Amino acid sequence: MKEQPNPPLVSVVIPCYKQAHFLPQAIESALSQTHRPVEVIVVDDGSPDNTAAVVARYPQVRYLRQENRGLGGARNSGFRISKGEYILFLDADDRFMPDAAAAHLSCFAKHPDAGFVVGDIDNIALDGSYLGSPRFPLLEGFVYEDVLKVNHVANSIAVMWRRSVFEQLGGFQPSCSPAEDVELLLHASRLFRTAHHRSTVAQYRRYPGTLTRKGEVMLPAISRVMRLQRDIVKNNRRLLNARRQGYAYWRDYFGKETLKELFAHAVHGSPRGAATSLVTLLRYVGGRLFIWPWKYRRKIGRMVDSWFRRLRKRGDSHDVFTT
Q: Are 125 and 207 in contact (CB under 8 A)?
């Protein structure tokens, strides 16, 4: 990308809640962008840890503390005090690649009619080691139908927004939490053109505590988002079919995460947690449980058998289920 005489300001908003131990890596990755100028804003979302002390090590970083409003609310607050013509959102446990902003801006330069652009990400483990590189199709133009069918955006950290577009969208919708990022991308792809590029812009940390692993929480939220889409597309048969495909995609994705949680609760002797997972599966997945691959059904069988053997070993099933 040619160097611009007056390069645009890029704002990086980093919400933080109970992740101060990761925060230095996120901040430093934002400050290390090859593009200049960049402003970095950390939103302390009522975090009980030492987030403020961590940010104080970086005098060039702006700090905002608020009562806990969740990830979407924290991102919106950071956006409101930002000044950049372009906006990036980075979670406190993730990291940007040094050329992230430059790669996004280069894509914008090639696609001046795009309202937002999307790059690739790498997955990393809790310790930062490399796990893999998911790759999604390179979309361009109005791609609502494509995004409605299946997740074509790896993560919100892979997206750069024009400020004017984010303002028109109204930000992240708290009513869709914690699937507000999916709702925003669907909203944006319905109203604005986009362009995707092949540059790796961020590293997404995958570990059990991340939202994408919390099927019990995500299944109801994503179902709510997809119900909203049904109201939008109800008069368009093609889009209705796309929505059905998308709903099935998300239901299976987070359904299997919920199933993993069910297994974990059973293994750790938490009948109440297992019951919650099971109720969530029955409500939002229902009969699709019986058409999932045989390996899942076999695993359920082994889990149930193990559970009953443990109950017999303890000798008092009443005590187990009231623990």
A: yes
Cα distance between residue 100 and residue 34, in whole Å: 8
Distance of CA 60 to CAs 47, 77, 91, 113, 160, Å? Answer: 21, 19, 19, 32, 22
The token pair at 72 is: 């979407």
Q: pTM score, two decimals?
A: 0.87
Report the candidate in 290, 176, 162 with the shortest Cα–Cα distance to residue 229. 176
Strand (E) or helix (H) holding 41? strand 38-45
Asked if 177 and 221 touch (Cβ cutoff 8 Å), the reply is: yes
Tell me how far apart the terminal alpha carbons of the chain are, to the nearest angstrom.
62
Per-residue pLDDT tens digits for 37-83: 999 999 999 999 999 999 999 999 999 999 999 999 999 999 999 99
Phi, psi (degrees; rounded to nearest 5) at 309: -65, -40
Query: Is the pLDDT assigned to residue 274 strictly greater than 90?
Result: no
Question: Of 22, 72, 21, 19, whose CA–CA distance to 47 is shortest?
Answer: 19
Q: What is the dihedral of CA 249, 253, 258, 262, to 10 degrees?
A: 110
Euclidean distance between CA atoms 161 and 82, whole angstroms: 13
Q: How far is CA 197 from the centre of its chain?
A: 19
Residue 176 C-beta-side C-alpha neighbours within 13 Å: 21
C-alpha closest to that of 91 among 177, 137, 1, 30: 30
Distance between CA atoms of residues 275 and 262, nearest Å: 8
Task: Name, in order, each residue with C-beta under 8 angstroms of 195's C-beta and a sequence gap of 6 or more.
Answer: 107, 108, 110, 111, 114, 117, 118, 139, 140
Length of the chain: 323
For residue 137, whether the previous peptide bond is cis, meaning omega lies within 30 degrees of 0, is no
Q: CB-based burial of residue 290 (10 Å sphere; 0-12 exposed, 13-18 middle, 19+ buried)?
A: exposed
Nearest to 157 by CA among 13, 254, 311, 6: 13
